[in-house]
Write a structure and sequence with these properties.
Elements (H helix, E strand, L loop, with lengths): L4 H21 L5 H21 L9 H21 L5 H21 L1 H5 L8 H21 L5 E2 L2 E2 L8 H20 L2
Length: 183
Amino acid sequence: MHGPLSAAWLLVALCAATGAYCLLRMRSGVEEQRRTAGGEALMGFGMALMAVPTAVLTPPSWAWLLYGAVFGAAAMRALWAARRGAHHLHHLVGTFAMAYMAVAMAVRPAAHAHHEGAGAPVLTGLLLLYFVGYVLWSGARLVPAGATTASGPAFAGWGDRPELARACRLSMGMGMLAMLLTM
């Protein structure tokens, strides 16, 4: 990740905390939530690794290719899972964006480090538009997230809190925007 050092470390912390919470969500009693949380944990930890400032750690080209392969495989899994629901389409776009950024860093790391080149490619712009829309949509969904029952507020286990899962997805969407903006 390129840009101010403090912003990069904040992004690393946000993505790592999101990944850790997604690991907690994997303890849910609902199988679909566990499966979704596993994919989101991979995204959170992968984003944290990719956001480590280049002033601290500059991975070799093969590491970026490894990231690309891991997220390419995750994109294939999300493509297969997309047959079951629309949320998996978001996972597909997210994993594809991660693979895209990793391969871009492997191919031209020096150009990204010094912001050389002819500007943002069309694909980066399309991904930015998608994630801006996703962040706005998921942020709006957080507003009415208070669930209650006849006896008062409903409390589910940490793995079954929909408002926390939405906040988790919102933070990863904002992280993805920050990472795409530095491309």
